[in-house]
Amino acid sequence: MTTAVWDYLPEYEAERADILDAVDTVFRSGRLVLGDSVQGFEREYAERHGLRHCVSCDNGTNALVLGLRALGVGRGDEVITVSNTAAPTVVAIDQVGATPVFVDIRAEDYLMNTDLVAAAITERTKCLLPVHLYGQCVDMAPLTALAAEHGLVVLEDCAQSHGATHHGRIAGTMGDAAAFSFYPTKVLGAYGDGGAVVTDQDEVAESLRRLRYYGMEKQYYVTSTPGHNSRLDEVHAEILRRKLRRFDDYLAGRRRVAARYAERLSDTDLVLPAITAGNDHVYYLYVVRHPRRDEIIERLRGYGIELNVSYRWPVHTMSGFAHLGYQAGDLPVTERLADEIFSLPMYPSLPEDLQDKVIDALIEVLATL
Ligand SMILES: *Cc1c(COP(=O)(O)O)cnc(C)c1O
């Protein structure tokens, strides 16, 4: 048996009765799409963020696509973001016909270096798209100030940061709108795909509701194009509602796992995650750094431990984005760190003996590199 960075089965065993009851509730409700569970989840998720609206959809990538479109971002517009992110951030920008513009990250927390954003703004810039990567937030004050000064919209990519806070504010409440993914591995995960956009702006929410429903204003009457069919299924919405009630326990579980790593690995020469001032980390991923990353991963494989790299290839270096015209060396910090970072197993129900197996193996490997 290999130890993986993520596994949902221990959680399913613990919550099985409730998950199956959620499925049964939906299947017996007589309504499989856009029914009570979707409405209930949207209301509860919006409330949790202290916002007026949550519009759910079928995945996080489409949450970004719909979010961009609802904020008026499209062909010819430039969107400033980072290259150290999950590729879907950039796929979504490309999907709406806009051009991603990358700024470098900070070595300390792997997040957007907001000092570089002003210089990246042009006549065509329309949107700032910070990615709250790994579970903590980008420094938002400089971004909202620049957005106000230049008339830009801000869309937060919260796919990795459900429940994270920044100077006391919850991720997803600091821009014009925010996109979430409920992909199973995420901090709040469905049993399949799911996503949502949250916003306080009524018009943006109305636009989102149309966009996810073929561009229809009312049944069978299209008022906006291009439309999408991008709905969250009732069954995932009901499961998400149940899991939302346990959300604080999941965060506590992640923090417990992180604390154990920090305690037992602090004497090694791994660079452990740093929490930036004002942030509360939810540890979607536990990302560490070492110059001999690839050797460490290879040796751990010999112990039956499979580690992950998020992300090995910065988006601007991918062949699919060659048309953007970036060269190796354009984003030096992003490129250097991509060769050194790797992720340790992280999920709330990670059994302690498995975590210790990983820690013991790491300590042994690091001592004999
Ligand atoms: C997971 C993820 C997405 C995409 O979400 P899906 O639900 O997989 O489409 C977008 N951005 C980031 C940062 C992610 O981690």
Low-confidence stretches: none
CATH class label of the largest domain: Alpha Beta
Please report the total strand number as a whole number.
14
- How confident overall, as mean pLDDT? 97
Distance between the termini: 25 Å
Name the hetero compounds present. pyridoxal-5'-phosphate
Number of domains: 2
Walkthrough of the structure:
With 369 residues, the chain is α/β, with parallel strands linked by helices. It has two domains: 9-103 and 110-245, 3-Layer(aba) Sandwich (Aspartate Aminotransferase, domain 2); 247-367, Aspartate Aminotransferase, domain 1, CATH 3.90.1150. The chain is built from twelve helices and 14 strands. The protein has helices at 9-27, 36-48, 60-70, 87-95, 117-120, 141-150, 202-211, 234-245, 247-265, 293-301, 332-338, 352-367; strands spanning 53-57, 78-82, 99-103, 125-128, 153-157, 165-166, 169-170, 177-181, 195-199, 216-218, 221-222, 279-280, 286-289, 341-344. A seven-stranded mixed sheet has the order 1-9-8-5-4-2-3, with helices on both faces. A three-stranded antiparallel sheet has the order 7-6-12, with no helix packed on it. Strand 6 (165-166) and strand 7 form a beta hairpin. Helix 3 (60-70) packs across helix 7. The model has no long low-confidence stretch (mean pLDDT 97). It binds pyridoxal-5'-phosphate. Residues 59-61, 85-86, 88-89, 131, 157, 159-160, 181, 183, 193, 195 line the site of pyridoxal-5'-phosphate (PLP). Residues 59-61, 85-86, 88-89, 131, 157, 159-160, 181, 183, 193, 195 line the site of pyridoxal-5'-phosphate.
